[in-house]
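User: Please fill in residues for this 146-position structure.
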């Protein structure tokens, strides 16, 4: 079974493409921040993976955990609840945008296309450390129940 786990510093979600009109032409582009974060994801993966890549016929699952710092403005009680996972960060970036920027960064590097991902989980939690994202990619595990 193939599996890899790695961490990315910071938490970022995919932004909308920017559209600008220049004369008679309209063009769209990916924001620079997205490109930089996707390149960071690629670089971290390549440094950890030692050439590991799933072929285009292999179904895979991806698990993403986004760790958010506990706000200093929280009371001691609220901070304790956050640290004990009794509350979760219901704030931006959205879970789907966190997944999108990471999966786009791994396209063509960890797998041929993100269509191979048949199971995806994203969890947002509070953590006492700096914001980060932990990513686990592995062969699809069976039996699978739903």
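Assistant: Residues filled in for all 146 positions:
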């Amino acid at each position: 079974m193939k599996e890899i786990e790695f961490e990315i510093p910071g938490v970022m979600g995919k932004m909308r493409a920017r559209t600008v009109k220049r004369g008679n032409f309209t063009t769209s582009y990916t924001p620079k921040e997205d490109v930089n974060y996707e390149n960071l994801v690629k670089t971290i993966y390549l440094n950890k993976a030692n050439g590991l890549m799933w072929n285009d016929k292999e179904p895979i699952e991806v698990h993403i955990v986004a760790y958010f710092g506990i706000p200093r403005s929280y009371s001691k009680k609220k901070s304790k609840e956050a640290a004990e996972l009794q509350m979760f960060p219901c704030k931006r970036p959205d879970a789907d945008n966190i997944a999108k920027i990471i999966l786009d960064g791994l396209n063509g590097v960890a797998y041929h296309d993100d269509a191979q991902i048949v199971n995806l989980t994203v969890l947002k939690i509070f953590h006492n450390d700096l914001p980060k994202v932990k990513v686990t990619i592995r062969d699809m595990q069976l039996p699978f129940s739903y």
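For context: The radius of gyration is 17 Å.
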